[in-house]
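Explain this fold:

***
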Amino acid sequence: MSGFRGVVRRNIPSGAGIWHDSFMTSTLITVAPTGAETAKADCPALPTTLEELVETAKRCEAAGAAMIHLHIRDGEHRPTLDLGRLTESVAAVRENTALIVQLSTGGAVTDPFDHRLRVLDAAPDSCSLTMGTVNFGDDVFMNPWPFVTELYQLTQEREVVPEFELFDLGQVAALGRLLDKYGLPYGGKVHCDLVMGVPGGMPGTTNALVAAVNGLPAGVTSWSATGVGRTTLPVALAALSCGGHLRVGMEDTLTLAKGQPVTHNAELVERAATIAALAQRPPMSPDDARDLLNIKRRP
């Protein structure tokens, strides 16, 4: 990992209430189709080739997704941060859809920090930025503070809008610390995602979600929630009731119900779109999502 780089302190505007999205009339649905944990051999429906990712992106956009969170696999279907594959995937999804393209800077838990920083060289619209280290099942997802701050400053320089991934209340507090010291992200909007139900992180319960939302710093302008595994539906319903947005996908769950495997990511997006519509907050378009997150328009 390269050295720490200082930046001039900026002020965070007050009054940007965390319940801002309570008044939203639509829902940002992000699809996370692949992840880095599930093996293709164990789940043949997992999209791991470029052709499968493009087909998934097109179907998920039609089902109601506005943003796609991408992990990339190599020719053997193993997780990779190969810059050529990342760049090719960003270009292919852009060519075939209007989706906001968000790349994971988490990769697999074994990926070195310098490779994770290099993800921004693929010039995505957005990237994930996890706000601290967390036990991830039997593994440890490492995000020490110097790495977090270096990645954040790099997003500011590269004009990439970060999505802050929050796995526990300590990371909620760390987000406030980051914004206070380094200022607002590129675009001026602060969007975070509460990742819930990971063994080692906060549970996927309504009480945990409300506690996390109540702890968000004043600079946050929108938030979403991800429920891992069997917490997918409870977290989605709680998020909608609290004014939040949704992330779904086969990265986070492989079943629709007990004994009913997911056969395509579009099924999870369709379900999310249905419950969002029932909450009278139907899916927003990619253009509306760009406005929500203040992501620059493509030329």
Notes: The CA atoms of residues 157 and 186 lie 8 Å apart. The radius of gyration is 17 Å.
